[in-house]
Amino acid sequence: MFGRGFSSVQDTRCCVPAVLAAAILVPVIAAAQESQITPNRNGPSFLSIRGDVPADVRRITLADAQQLAQAANDPLARLGQLQVEAARQHRLGVTSMYFPSVTTQAVNLHLSETPGQLLSFQRPLTGGLISVPVGVVSQDSTTVNVVATQPITQLFAVRQLVKIAQADENIARTKAGMPVTALARQVEKNFFDLLVAERELAAAASDARKVRASWVTIGDAGLLGTAAQQTDALRVERAQAAVAGEVATLTAVLNGLLGLAPEIRLELVPPTPLVENLTLKDALAQAQASPSLEVVEAEQTAVKARSAAKLAKFAYVPGVAILGGYVHQDALSDVVLPENFAYVGVVATYTLFDSLKRERAVKEASAQEQAAALGVELTKAKSAAAVKSAYIELERSRDAYQFARQMLSASRTGVRLVSNSENAEAGHARAEADVFRAEGRYREAYAALTSLIADGQPTIR
Description:
Blueprint lengths: L7 H25 L4 E3 L7 E3 L7 E4 L1 H11 L1 H22 L5 E10 L8 E4 L6 E4 L7 E12 L2 H23 L1 H36 L13 H32 L6 E4 L11 H10 L3 H21 L5 E11 L10 E10 L7 H56 L8 H33 L8
Parallel strand pairs: 3-8
Antiparallel strand pairs: 1-2, 4-7, 5-6, 7-9, 9-10
């Protein structure tokens, strides 16, 4: 249309309206094709997911989420408390065997035949026998016996039974807090997974806006979108839809843990950075001072095995007990036995021969005692190795988290061109996702280490 000699001034005048038109059309088209899922860039990580029915939005922190989860899953904590209470009552029941036991028996009899009433004695002169009817046994009789028994030699066996019950109670106390701790760790992991998914969705939305904005072209063709551009748009939309589905799934899972309705949207407040200064020496010292569940269970099992070995040896000791009681009876005549009387005595029992059963039981208990003692040593060595491995993982995740924070700080500085604003926004969102991902792994490694060193473990009595 124009000749080759057309001046550059005229070329500039022609391009200015086109550039202005492009500047107007780009934001209009981008806004018109905005995704239905838009991130909130002015506040904490929060995504507004449009639905057919408006849902409530709840702002929540990690600490609040863990408290809600514990309240919603209170039966787990209650279960641990009930197990501890059952073990405590069992120990108290065994302890009561130290004290005398009082029992009573009541017997009421009616004989089908009348008892004989005969008393014979010799005549003084003739030497013959004479029979005089005398009632000795009653046809209807009632006997009441109240007896108190105090074991003597059995008290040594009771002491070992109390130790076994105490070991079971200690194990129950150690396990009582496990469901609560596991639930808190699960909520924390899901919380950070959702933060990561939200930031990745923000980056995907930014990529989609960039691709749609590139549909406006200036040239002889005047097309709003080529086949390649439409393919890119479809690709980014699929990626955005996949991330949006992940966000919806993680939100539903977290709502389930917190006891909230599935349709409630959450405004997650990123927690303050984790600060810890643990060293390997401190971790090993804490693990030794406050042993983990595995070590506690192994130690208490050794206590039980040691007490069981001593208990098996008491089978060779006679059972001696002191008893005393009171009897009211009318089965026999007062001439033979008073109607009311008291008594006291000693009872001893001993098994003379049981086909070597006691000997086998003692050897079995001794072998179990040795195995339990060896198990304690192996468990402690395994626990120390696990603490070292967990600490190495903690150091690695700590370095990765600090590096991710440095990368995020670097993405916030520097000069960015207006044309690169979408790239910068997507890059910043991905950098935040990397920080949340690294922080989640860092916290998970720290929780794994603290569970091994059993920080805050209940005191073993």
